Amino acid sequence: MNKEKQISGVAIKQVALLAIILVLTGLICFNLALFIPSVLGAITIYVVCRKYNFYLQEEKKWKPWLSSLVLMLASLIILILPIYFIADLLIEKLGNAQVYMAKFNVFLDKIHSYVYEQVHFDILSKENMDKLKSSAGKVSTSAVSGTFNTLTVVMSMYFILYFMLDQPRRFERILTSSAPLKRSNISLIGDKMRKLIMANAIGIPVVALGQGLVALIGYFIFGAPSPVLLFALTAAASMVPVVGAAIVYIPVCIFMIAEGNTGPGLGLAAYCLIVVGLTDNLLRFTLLKKLEDIHPLNTVFGIIMGMNLFGFMGLIFGPILISLTLLLIQVYRNEFSENDIPELEFPDKNNDDNKIDLIV
């Protein structure tokens, strides 16, 4: 009876080894926390470039170093520079805090006064107005302070990415052999992560740039103030689900009407609601749905968490981390509750494991 209640030596060894692994992993993450965004970014770009890397190295017989450098340069031009341009533009405008905040305060006061005169409703009390102005000042200050950090992350990210692209088969073999999971679950994680990364790294920036460019045309046509800055703000705001770019163009339209430009203000409002809104729906329900159907709450909370952890790059990494956490919960259930595994999604144990792709 006592022997049955005793914990086996194997279980004790497993728990002890797991504890050591967790402690060492915690120490590594704590001391290398600055490089976590770089690792996430390198993995993201690796997944995007993976197919082309294998094509160049294995079919075209390019040298690994040449293939790696070409793909790194292409990813820098296509993926990183557009996002960095928007971020840098916002930082440049927000960086001149004294001039910017003076204009921003006038902008807010004008909107508040106009709305109050029209509907006699105090949309923003003096206390809330002060809070909003204070929050905007803090955002501008933190944006400027994060410039150097962003450049450091990008440089270290490409340093890590080079070694991933240089020997891709070895890199993937190390990942799959290190994961203490069934091959079917490794395949599930790989396939799901590929879709999540493509949706966040390709889909969301494309939707943002598309909306920003379409809105920019309207800003120039109807004479909106600072159209290039508004383009950057619209592109950044479009990443936020539900409200999206409306949190930028609606106040701008009200401001233009309050300034006496009623015709252009109403015209811009109609243009943004119809054309920009149609662009948003078209891109989201075609491109994003095709890549991966991500729940809006994942994106909202992912962006909030990602911005706190990684700054501007958190716009992409935050939603990925939220989705990955939910995916790992599903994998945990599949790994240890085999009776609940759907037969269509997870094949029977007797099936040949070699038929399952290893990663991504």
From TrEMBL:
Domain of life: Bacteria
Any Pfam family the entry gives: AI-2E_transport
Keywords: Membrane, Transmembrane, Transmembrane helix
Predominant location: membrane
Matches recorded under InterPro entries: AI-2E-like
Its membrane topology: Multi-pass membrane protein
GO cellular component, one term: membrane
Entry keyword annotation includes Methyltransferase: no
Entry annotated with the keyword Membrane: yes
Residue spans crossing the bilayer: 15-48, 69-87, 143-165, 196-222, 228-258, 265-283, 303-329
Location of this chain's protein in the cell: Membrane
UniProt family annotation: Belongs to the autoinducer-2 exporter (AI-2E) (TC 2.A.86) family.
Name of the featured protein: Permease
Protein species of origin: Chryseobacterium soli
